[in-house]
């Protein structure tokens, strides 16, 4: 039995490359929200993986992209700052030999850091095995990689190889969190993200990036709907903020159908997370152009540490 290893690992990559899906799969529990739309992850999400070898604290950063507003600039600065704060960087890429400007920008950032980098070729379930070698060959000289691990975040293929490779690069260290901890995020924050995920999945392309969710209240009370029940219920009031009146109409939907669908699906996920029955009330409000307002961004939880 070797010495216990521990450290901080970040996942970096272009938007929609599968960072959140991979982290959820490595942890074995849904913490980060996933969506087919880019810019899903706005804050760094800290999750914890512990086994007999050691403990890995994962920071999932926002995808790096060209900033178009203050929210975009904030997301980029969070992602770039993380590189110098961790022990290992996982760079996730698509299984294609085309390397665009986004990948070149990330390669420049990674070349300037002294932190060990592992190239992770994701989505290998979508290509033939023979197509992987040319991809690895294309990337291998861009950064001084310590290793390359092809994986499928969706199926979990090669997940154990990736964990083993990460542990090889981590220093000996303490157990930072108790072994049953999987995230340092507050329940309110994860609840807000689960609601936003359901909105992202159902709304038209012009709405999602202008959506923020704020939990107005979370109160655990006795479930009085069942007589003599000792079970509790979580009553949650939450507000979905959007940037335009027209967006508000889309989010609410015809006769409230869209908002009801968002709420129903979010309620099931939150119930699974909290392990209890959930009563969820959603409201929709307009805050014009909030993504370019420092004060509103701070109110919605997007602020520099």
Automatic annotation (TrEMBL):
Region (G5): 151-153
Membrane topology of the entry: Peripheral membrane protein
Stretches the record annotates as G4: 122-125
Sequence positions that bind GTP: 13-20, 60-64, 122-125
InterPro entries documented for this protein: G_ERA_dom, GTP-bd, GTPase_Era-like, KH_dom-like_a/b, KH_dom_type_2, KH_sf_prok-type, P-loop_NTPase, Small_GTP-bd
One of the Pfam families matching this protein, by short name: KH_2
GO biological process: ribosomal small subunit assembly
Matches recorded under PROSITE patterns: G_ERA, KH_TYPE_2
GO cellular component: cytosol; plasma membrane
One Gene Ontology molecular-function label: small ribosomal subunit rRNA binding
Region (G3), start-end ranges: 60-63
Subcellular localization: Cytoplasm; Cell membrane
Superkingdom classification of source: Bacteria
Era-type G domain sequence ranges: 5-172
Region spans: G1: 13-20
Positions of the KH type-2 domain: 203-288
Keywords from the named record: Cell membrane, Cytoplasm, GTP-binding, Membrane, Nucleotide-binding, Ribosome biogenesis, RNA-binding, rRNA-binding
Start and end residues of each stretch annotated as G2: 39-43
Biological function: An essential GTPase that binds both GDP and GTP, with rapid nucleotide exchange. Plays a role in 16S rRNA processing and 30S ribosomal subunit biogenesis and possibly also in cell cycle regulation and energy metabolism.
Record family assignment: Belongs to the TRAFAC class TrmE-Era-EngA-EngB-Septin-like GTPase superfamily. Era GTPase family.
Quaternary structure note: Monomer.
NCBIfam families linked to this entry: era, PRK00089.1, small_GTP
Protein name: GTPase Era
Protein species of origin: Catonella morbi ATCC 51271
Lineage of producing organism: Bacteria, Bacillati, Bacillota, Clostridia, Lachnospirales
